[in-house]
Amino acid sequence: MFHRVLPGYSDSKSGQTGDYQMKIGYYSLDEYEKLVKSFHGSLAPGLLIGGFMVDLAQKNLPQGEFFDTICETSSCLPDAVQLLTPCSTGNGWMKVIDFGRFAISFYEKKTGEGIRVFLDLDKLKNCSEVYSWFMKLKPKREQDSNLLMNQIKEAGAEILSIRKIRIDPALFEKKKGGASAVCPVCKEAYPAGHGDKCRNCAGESPYLEVAEM
Ligand code: ZN
Predict the structure, then answer these.
(1) 180 φ/ψ angles, rounded to the nearest 5 degrees
(2) How far apart are CA 55 and CA 4, in angstroms?
(3) Does 177-213 carry CATH code 3.90.1150.10?
(4) How far is the C-alpha of 17 from the C-alpha of 201, rounded, in Å?
(5) Which of 44, 150, 191, 203 lies most in the core, judged by the most C-beta atoms within 10 Å?
(6) Distance between CA 61 and CA 142 in Å, rounded?
(7) CA-based radius of gyration for the chain
(8) CA nearest 118: which of 128, 107, 105, 108?
(9) What is the CATH number of domain 2-172?
(10) 8 Å CB contact between 183 and 123
């Protein structure tokens, strides 16, 4: 959920030089790149595009309302949302539905109404390197990453499209927290609704080995 507080950012001029300066949310492009590197580990192309996506959405949302978000892919986009809005997986205001589509939606929780921003293939005609990166047309070592990043920065929101959406508000309603139980196998607490054992002990364990230390 985030509160849209300010009108458009990207058309602001830098006070010092008067040069046109591209912005992502409140950040200059440089600042955003630094944030991304420290949070995500590297400046991934998807996070740069994701920054422009969140920025475009914020400019198209009505003021004075709160919005939850849905990321339609688990890669890159959730980090752009978490860097630029108060929505996170931890606070529940961001949901990841891993359709593998490069899109983010922002919706008002009660009405389910909002907008969806996506990377629009039809708009990538002049961005050959972005297109081949997005469609995974060549191995990473053959990518021209400078060209890729430059094309993304030059294009900004021009390679994105936006749609009005309405989601079923019941879809993400918080389920009432049920009682906890003690797992008879591992002796740890788990939601009783999961069954007579915790999911780990019922066969879904990711661990090959768990040893005392
Ligand atoms: Zn257990």
Answers:
(1) -100, 155
(2) 11
(3) no
(4) 63
(5) 44
(6) 39
(7) 21
(8) 105
(9) 3.30.1330.130
(10) no
How far apart are the C-alpha atoms of 126 and 104, rounded to whole Å? 23
Q: Where are the domains of the chain?
A: 2-172, 177-213
Structure tokens at 151: 């094309």
From 121, 43, 138, 119, select the one nearest 83 (Cα to Cα): 43
Three-state DSSP at 166 gives strand
C-alpha–C-alpha distance, residues 175 and 191, integer Å: 12
> Per this entry, what is the length of the chain?
213
Q: Beta strand 189-191 with 160-166: parallel, antiparallel or unpaired?
A: unpaired
Q: What is the residue type of 105?
A: S
Report whether pLDDT(177) > 90.
no
Q: Taking CA 42 as the corner, what is the angle to CA 40 and CA 48, rounded to the nearest 5 degrees?
A: 80
pLDDT in tens, 94-151: 999 999 999 999 999 889 999 999 999 999 999 999 999 999 999 989 999 999 999 9
Whole-number Å distance, alpha carbon 43 to ligand 1 midpoint, is 39
Distance, CA 212 to ligand 1 centroid (Å)? 16
Cα 193 to averaged position of ligand 1 atoms, centre (Å): 13
The token pair at 130 is 């972005």
**What's the Cα-to-Cα distance from 173 to each of 105, 115, 135, rounded to whole Å?**
17, 19, 35
